[in-house]
Amino acid sequence: MRVWDGVSDARISFDWDTARSLGPRKPTQPTTIAYMIENVNTVSALLGRLEELGGVDTFSSTKVDSIELGADTEQLDLSSWPVLSLSNGKSLAARLLVGADGANSPVRTFAGIPSRGFDYSRHGVVATLKLSGPGWGGPDHKIAYQRFLPSGPIAMLPMPGNFATLVWSTTPERAAKLKSLSSADFVAMVNAGFRLSPTDLQYLHTLPSGQEEEIAWREKHTPVNERSIPMRVTDVQAGTVASFPLRMRHADTYTGERVALVGDAAHTIHPLAGQGLNQGQGDAAALVRTISYAVETGQDIGSTLALESYNSARYAENNAMLGVCDKLHRLYSVESGPIVGLRSLGLRAVDAMGPLKGFFMNRAAGGV
Ligand SMILES: Cc1cc2nc3c(=O)[nH]c(=O)nc-3n(C[C@H](O)[C@H](O)[C@H](O)COP(=O)(O)OP(=O)(O)OC[C@H]3O[C@@H](n4cnc5c(N)ncnc54)[C@H](O)[C@@H]3O)c2cc1C
Question: Where do the FAD-binding domain residues begin and end (predicted)?
Fold first, then answer.
């Protein structure tokens, strides 16, 4: 992975070859830093596995219309149980209701758990891009790129073949402009995002159209080492350009009586480190451990006591990651002055320290 400062051009690259320059790879160290998996593949693999395991009812294309506490009747006391009314007319009573229902979680609202934070006044523009080749590392050694611009980072994440995913965090106005451009102007802007100066980019966002010609002219006067940045984008897949508002939110707690929150229902993070879904998967794994222990020890899996270990296993870790990404966003939003010099010095220092980089990569790769 290659990361650099769009103002000072200070760089850091994460790959095992440079990190190992001061020592051999430990057997516990993975050989790949990260995998890029499209969400659709993760979801279909999980659904396939659920079907294989059996014993699970799935309701496709069904909405949870409302959640209320159940009734206390002569046969059954459901007064502490959440009862879900589904759009297919069914209703379900839950011993434990797991809210994996995103940033605006209806389950969190039902449980009365406050979620605090703020909006970044930034949108993440995403798109599927076609490149002029498989990438500088060839088809088997894919490289991800991220350039920190004062308005937010622009990242290109590799996909199979000659394709890549764009995540460009920028102001809502610039996001709207990018989405309004023709394909040719949009492609030119993405190429410019990795090549031209923040001042050039600021000007280019003010043009109603014609970015392609303007950028071609400006690039002639801006020498870059093409092999240190992503291969040129040649096309954008129709219908893939979209944008999402970026927020930082953290629920006060992940558990309540017969309720547990996972993923974005519990926390929403800036995407600059690509950690949102990873955090959610960490939550799911920790919740499974908690439920297994409760079952093995004969506890009620919906009681706050049984769920407490899930909250303590995940809250602090997620909070630390939310803080790191927030600080990085703030650090790189600064356009000039001593902060730019200091952050560039820090980046270059870490880049020169093989073992320290190895530590970061090991953490990112899920190693020990
Ligand atoms: C621009 C951008 C780029 C990102 N890039 C990365 C990345 O590279 N790597 C990474 O790990 N993360 C990334 N993330 C974060 C990642 O997308 C989220 O963290 C992840 O999608 C959260 O998953 P989730 O299942 O918790 O919530 P969601 O994906 O929001 O899913 C919630 C689901 O609940 C359903 N739902 C909600 N209410 C109801 C209801 N009443 N009835 C029925 N269903 C309901 C919704 O339809 C939805 O399917 C990025 C985010 C953004 C905005």
Answer: 37-316
Residue of 33, 61, 101, 105 best suited for mutating to test ligand 1, as the one with most atoms within 8 Å of CB: 101
Which runs of E-coded beta strand occur in the chain? 2-5, 11-13, 64-69, 82-86, 91-93, 97-99, 115-131, 145-149, 152-158, 163-170, 233-236, 242-251, 255-256, 259-261, 267-268
Cβ atoms of 329 and 298 within 8 Å: the answer is no
282 ligand 1 Cβ < 6 A: no
> What is the tens place of the pLDDT at every residue in 185-208?
999 999 999 999 999 999 999 999
Going from the C-alpha of 322 to that of each of 39, 251, 275, 367, the distances in angstroms are 21, 12, 9, 20
Q: Which two tokens stand for residue 155?
A: 């990242």
> What pLDDT is stored for residue 25 in this prediction?
56
* Ligand 1 nearest-atom number relative to CA 245: 53
| Atom 14 of ligand 1: nearest residue by CA position | 276
The answer to which of 20-24, 45-49, 93-97, 163-167 has the lowest mean pLDDT is 20-24
| Residue 55 burial (CB count, 10 A) | 5
> Is the CB of residue 244 below 6 angstroms from any atom belonging to ligand 1?
yes
CA distance 190 to 212: 10
**Residue 101 Cβ < 6 Å to ligand 1:** yes
CA-CA distance, 9 to 201, in Å (whole number)?
Answer: 15
Atom of ligand 1 nearest to the CA of 280: 26
Which sequence spans correspond to the domains of the chain?
63-94
Question: Helices 183-195 and 211-220, interaxial angle, to 10°?
Answer: 30
Distance CA 263, CA 194 (A): 31
Look over the chain and give the mean of its residue pLDDT values, rounded to a whole number: 91
Determine if ligand 1 sits within 6 Å of the CB of residue 38.
no
